[in-house]
């Protein structure tokens, strides 16, 4: 596994959901804050997104994508409405259940709105540093994979095609990967694009994520990367914010939590998978990191949300 895939897999739970909305005329709808990540893809027309907390409004045109990785509440509207209109915004759920239907008309604007369910107990720092709003404008020749995913989703959602129940969630998962990739390529402020662009830190992370159960030491990891131990420790700690072995411990326990949540594997198998010699050793380290035992963690994760 690579770091980005692992960072997403550690927090992704369940299946994403989406709705295709067609509106025209004057409209304004509110999406409340969400314990996950929200997104919008403008398939036709244009609209505005107004984030809660006084952030600047974002103009969205056809083909634009916006990701709200921390589930921030926001309003989408036909125009940059004032505070009074924001207060009167119709809850998005009431549009969908017909209580307050979206304005009828020819459908001048079509937006694909959706959510990803995320478990925020163990957010990887790469995911944590994403800004509240990631706006990816439609530009010719830029991020072709993202554009292809948008085109495919536009043809699938709401079209009742055979196999859509499998195709749409898979495409939405791809969309999340492509949105994060696009942000990393364009980011001028995030630390992790630089981390993964550094040959020493990136090689060390790749080794640790590929085989976290290996008997890593600082010397062995430095030899794997092809630098001295002091160079590895200095570069890795400066860029990542943790020393290599501290990061490895954190990642092993994060991976153990994911396996407890997503699999029925016994604790002995999970301990072996993440590099702990015994279930007791894993349980002790897990309790120190998460403040609960693996068994209680698994029980809590299994409860309906």
Description of the structure:
With 305 residues, the chain is of the alpha+beta class. Strand 4 and strand 5 form a beta hairpin. The chain starts with a helix and ends with a helix. It is built from 14 helices and 10 strands.
The topology string of helices and strands comes to: HEEEEEEEHEHEHEHHHHHHHHHH
| DSSP strand count | 10
* End-to-end distance: 28 Å
Strand content: 15-25%
Unreliable stretches, pLDDT < 50, 5 or more residues?
A: none
Structural class determined from secondary elements: alpha+beta
The general outline is globular
Arrangement of strands in the largest sheet: 1-9-3-6-10
Quaternary:
single chain
Helical proportion? 40-55%
Radius of gyration: 22 Å
Mean pLDDT: 90
The number of helical runs is: 14
Task: Tell me about the largest β-sheet.
Answer: 5 strands, antiparallel
